[in-house]
Amino acid sequence: MRGFITAVICIWLTILFPALSSASVSVPYDTETLTADGNDIETQTAYTPIGLFAKETEIVNPEDIYIDGEGSIYIADSGTQRVTKFDEEGNELEVYGEEELSQPLGVYADESGAVYVADYGSEKVVKFHEDGEVVDEFERPESPLFGNSAPYKPEKVSVDTRGNIYIIGESATNGIIQLSEDGTFLGYYGANTLAPSVGTFLQEMMTTQRQKANLFMKEPPAPGNISIDDQGLVYTTTSGTTWEAIRKLNIEGGNILPPAMTEETNLVDIAVGSIGNIYTVGSDGIIYEYDSSGNQLFSFGGKTNENNRLGLTTQPSSIEVDDVGRLYVTDREQGNIQVYEPTEFTSVLHQGLALFEEGFYVESEDYWNEILRLNSSFGLAHTAKGEALYKQQEYDEALQEFKLANDKDGYSNAFWEIRYRWMENNLAGAFMIVFAFFTVRYTVKFTDRKKNILDPVRNTTGQIKRVPLVNQLVFLTRFLKKPIDSVYYLKNGERVSLISAAVLYLVLVFEYLLRIYWTGFLFTDRVLEDVNLFFEIGTVLLPLLLFIVVNYLVSTITEGEGRFRDIYIGTIYSLAPILLFLIPVTLVSNILTFNEAFVYTFSMQIIIVWSIIILFTTIKEIHDYSFWGTVRNLFATLFGMFLTVLIFFVLYVLFDQLYDFVSSVIEEVMLRV
């Protein structure tokens, strides 16, 4: 119902303000969105600046802005040391805390009209009655659970429908300070987490809770701002990190948004719209809009050194959105509040989103078609249209939309339906073909035993196998079953040659390139248009060449018996599982969905582990090492490879600097001459 109401409001705005068409809008900034591949691309203007709010009122340093359910707007101003309430037209209605507040940084108003102010200067949260009278003051909690050394410097405040108070405090790394309606400390809520790393994983695995308490633990950054939506979900922003910089917290304080949904580290505030859209603003003046799932819709705005340039800010401090989608951004430096209004393009997008969020995928399709008509690279529109087509059981068309959107989950679901339909229609025929194949095979073998009808085939095959190069290539299969015996023939120069090894290296490169192009959409993240063939060839051959050279050098000083020729040939023959099974597994990936993903991933793991085991055995037999001698040799080889790469990198940097120096000297001489 809420989605329908919002859609009606957006339609009303579109009819009432037809001049908001993005084609005719001129603004001092570009608007960007994300393509399906995650790249920024310029799109139609999403929001236009329409003026300054309450410009006739004295506003010095606006720190926070809040809009209540009645449309009243509250501004916390640290410059005037007060909070001012305005109506939608910017007329002053009430003033709070002219004599009580020291440095108000945050403001919130509940449904009853009570106003909560986070007063950083006096280190407390002050609650005012609607008429401006002080009702209560929430100072530092006395509960021992709060912590004797825990800081209490309120910066932002919000209140849920139950009357619980959420306080963002300076350096409050334990999480959001949560108080009951009467000020009782309820605990810390929604503490930030650290990005996972190998070090933290090992520490979690190897230490007990008591040991962790005694260790010096790195603290996560404290959240910087807060907002609560109509459903009671808490949203926070955190600056200085890209890990969970934007969070949407459930009742347990867990984040339900993607932890790496943004790369911005300078976010200062967050707001939530009527359809669940998330708005943030950074210290650089860039405003970001996301849908309720964390998909970025737009980024626009910016910073200016000029005073009062409409649409650009100098030091943004807060953002808020009203019921019709207008954005309000406070500028602490310029002492004003910029107002942005959605364009027709954004209104259409919001109408589609409102229906989409309520589950009316089919009804939203027309809006997504319009968005794609205006911007065919809008990734979210392809996803939403794919969902609409999927609900209508138009799976082939949905598959294409999901592919354009790079939506692998949607693609998997649509492909499963297509595959299921194909199996329903063709499974009987497929069984008949298999049955016919085995029948013909049995008949041919039976007849061959009686009349030897396959002798010409066997003679031809035998002649081909007697070709030395073919025989050497076929010997590859022996490494799968008997790698130790195979190395004996390798060291004695039998059954293999340098030419056959060179052919297999070329085959490996060819198969690797085929894997890039033939892997199923669900199991690859490669963008084929960005593939550089020379780079990919180097990716395969250079590590192998480096391994061969370094292993030979290491073995010469560790009493290894292997020759360079042996290592060169043995390395590629040890990769027999990869050479023989890489392409079949790659082809199979095209008929699998995520439900059978383990078939592909497990098969690739088996191939790789199998090849490593054979390579280990080959190196051991070539050099006549013991088990632990082989382990030491391989570790020394890997370390030598690392040092070699490091040395080449240092030399590259030095020669690059030398080249720049010589070039600059030559240019200077030529200019002076």
List keywords for this structure.
673 residues, alpha+beta, Thrombin, subunit H, Neuraminidase, Serine Threonine Protein Phosphatase 5, Tetratricopeptide repeat, four-stranded antiparallel β-sheet, 18 helices, 25 strands, 44% helix, 19% strand, disordered N terminus
Number of helices, counting only DSSP H or I runs of 4 residues or more: 18
Oligomeric state, counting identical vs distinct chains: single chain
Q: Rg, please? A: 34 Å
Strand order of the largest sheet: 3-25-24-23
- Percent helix, as a range, is 40-55%
Q: What is the average of the pLDDT values?
A: 88
Give the overall form.
elongated
Instruction: Tally the beta strands.
Output: 25
Main β-sheet description: 4 strands, antiparallel
Strand content: 15-25%
Structural class, from secondary structure content? alpha+beta
Distance between the termini: 78 Å
Low-confidence stretches: 1-24
Count of folded domains: 4
Overall description:
The chain has 673 residues and is α+β, with helices and mostly antiparallel strands. The chain contains 18 helices and 25 strands. It folds into four domains: 1-56 and 222-358, Beta Barrel (Thrombin, subunit H), CATH 2.40.10.500; 62-220, Neuraminidase (6 Propeller); 363-453, Serine Threonine Protein Phosphatase 5, Tetratricopeptide repeat (Alpha Horseshoe), CATH 1.25.40; 454-656, no CATH class. The protein is 44% helix and 19% strand. The strands form seven sheets. The protein has a four-stranded antiparallel β-sheet with strand order 3-25-24-23. The protein has a four-stranded antiparallel β-sheet with strand order 4-5-6-7, with no helix packed on it. A hairpin with a 5-residue loop joins strand 12 (154-159) and strand 13 (165-169). The longest helix is centred in the last third of the chain and has 46 residues, at 627-672. The N and C termini lie far apart (78 Å). The model is unreliable at 1-24 (pLDDT under 50).
